[in-house]
Amino acid sequence: MEIVLEEIGQVLLVRPQFRRLDAAAAIEFRNKVGDHMEGRQLVVMALGNVDFVDSSGLGCLISLFKRLPPGGAMRLAEASPAVERLLKLTRLDRVLPSFGSVQQAMA
Q1: What is the pTM of this model?
Q2: Sign of CA pseudo-dihedral 61, 83, 101, 49
Q3: H or E stretch at 44
Q4: pLDDT tens digits in sequence order for the chain, 107 residues long
Q5: Cα dist. 97→25, 28, 30, 53 in Å?
Q6: What is the rounded distance in angstroms from the CA atom of residue 37 to the CA atom of residue 10?
Q7: Distances (CA, A) of 20 to 1, 3, 45
Q8: Which domains are seen in the chain, by residue range?
Q9: DSSP H helical segments within the chain, as ranges?
Q10: How far is the CA of 85 from the CAs of 23, 37, 56, in angstroms?
């Protein structure tokens, strides 16, 4: 599993290089990203390559969100229409706002 991680000041930019965030990928993804989250006030997940997320993938995102320090935020960027629909359906878009671009998510 390839994940590109960029540390930009207090921001962690996460770019998964795989298509499915599912049960097969969620644990490894959570562990790899979680290892780099300490002290980050903002985590941006650039999901442009991800076209499928299942319940394990959603659980993974929530687990990572809960690791943030008080006042920290996680934002999603470049999510596919299918992922956007899933976030709205589960109302996770209220907790994990989604933006059209990484630049918008980092602003």
Answers
A1: 0.94
A2: positive
A3: strand 42-46
A4: 899 999 998 899 999 999 999 999 999 999 999 999 988 999 999 999 999 999 999 999 999 999 999 999 999 999 999 999 999 999 999 999 999 999 999 99
A5: 22, 23, 19, 16
A6: 10
A7: 11, 12, 14
A8: 3-106 (3.30.750.24)
A9: 23-34, 55-66, 81-89, 102-106
A10: 19, 27, 16
